[in-house]
Amino acid sequence: MQRLWVPHRMVYVADHHQPDHSDCPFCEASHRSDEDALIVARGKTAYVLLNLFPYNNGHMLVCPYRHVSLYDEATDEEVAEIAALTQTAMRVAREVMGCQGFNIGMNQGAIAGAGVASHLHQHIVPRWSSDANFFPIIAKTKALPQLLGDVRASLAAAWPHP
C-alpha cells in the first residue's frame, strides 16, 4: 500500500482548542500582509482568505473584520459585503480555476463543527467533477494540486479592483 504523508494536517487534527478574541486566527490574519496571511481580497467590513487546511483546492473563507461569532450578530453592512465577496470569489474561482460548482456554508458554533467558533466565517469550496475520487474515501487523504501561496497569488491577481 502506498501512503501520501500530509504531516502539516496534524496541527489542525490535534488542536482541539477553540480560540477566543485573544488568540483568534482571523483577527490576527487581518493585520498581516496579504501574502503572509493568504488574503485574496479585502473589503470595507470583510475580507477573503484561503483556508490554511483546505477541503479542496482554492478553498476560501469570507470573514468580517469584526470579531463576532454568529451570523445574526453581523451588521447589515457586514452581511451584504460577505454576500458580495462570496459572489466575486465564485466568479474569480470559475475564471482562474475552471471549477464547475461550489459548496458554500457556515458552521455556527463548535457543536455545529466550526473549527473557529468565535469568529464568523463562510466557506467557499470549489468543486470539479473529477475531484470526487477514491482518495478521500479509502485513504482519508485529500490531494491538493497547487501550493496555497500559488493559489492565493492567482486568485488575488484575477480579483476585480473597483
From TrEMBL:
Asked if the record carries the keyword Nucleotide-binding, the reply is yes
| The organism's place on the tree of life at top rank | Bacteria
- According to the entry, every stretch annotated as the HIT domain falls at 25-134
Keywords in alphabetical order, please: Nucleotide-binding
The record places the motif (Histidine triad motif) at: 119-123
What InterPro entries would the database entry show? Answer: AP-4-A_phosphorylase (IPR052908), FHIT (IPR039383), HIT-like (IPR011146), HIT-like_sf (IPR036265)
UniProt name for this protein: HIT domain-containing protein
